Amino acid sequence: MARDRIGATTKGWQRLTVSLAANAADVPHLDAHRARLTDLLTQVQTLGNQQAALAASKQEVTKQFQAALAEAHTVAAFLRSGLREKYGKEAEKLVEFGLRPFRGIRRKKEPDAPGPTPEHPVVKADAGTSDPPA
């Protein structure tokens, strides 16, 4: 939408400069500014064309970049797999390559009986506080 507004604006500037050139005898005091607007209009059009070309180039580079990233991920996964095959999945040598060796599955210990909760703490009676028989 912004490009449409720029196009409409530049077309308006073109119409203005053409009309000013056609009526140069009536407005001779505006001739220098009309020439400046004509130069600026040419510059804006040139820069707009460059911008469009660079946008297309950027899109192509982005496609190439994404393809290279995808291939690099594939090759890196292949290499990691090869290292695990060579040294074994549990070898500590894998750490040297930035890989984690398999060290077993850690399972959560399940409690045998429900433990104390913050609402119901377990209170133990202290055997040493009672009076000894006399």
Please give the structural blueprint.
Blueprint: H1 2-22, H2 31-87
Helix pairs in contact: 1-2
Overview of this structure, please?
Helix content is 58%, strand content 0%. It is mainly α and 134 residues long. The chain has one domain. α1 runs antiparallel to α2. The longest helix is centred in the middle third of the chain and has 57 residues, at 31-87. It is elongated and about 105 Å long. It starts with a helix and ends in a 47-residue tail after the last helix. The mean pLDDT is 87.
Which band does the percent of strand residues land in?
under 5%
Number of DSSP E strands: 0
Helix content: 55-70%
Task: Please state the average pLDDT score.
Answer: 87
| Rg over CA atoms | 40 Å
How far the N terminus sits from the C terminus, by CA atoms, comes to 101 Å
Biggest sheet details: none
Structural class from helices and strands?
mainly alpha
Q: Number of helical segments?
A: 2
SSE order: HH
Provide the domain count.
Answer: 1
Shape: elongated
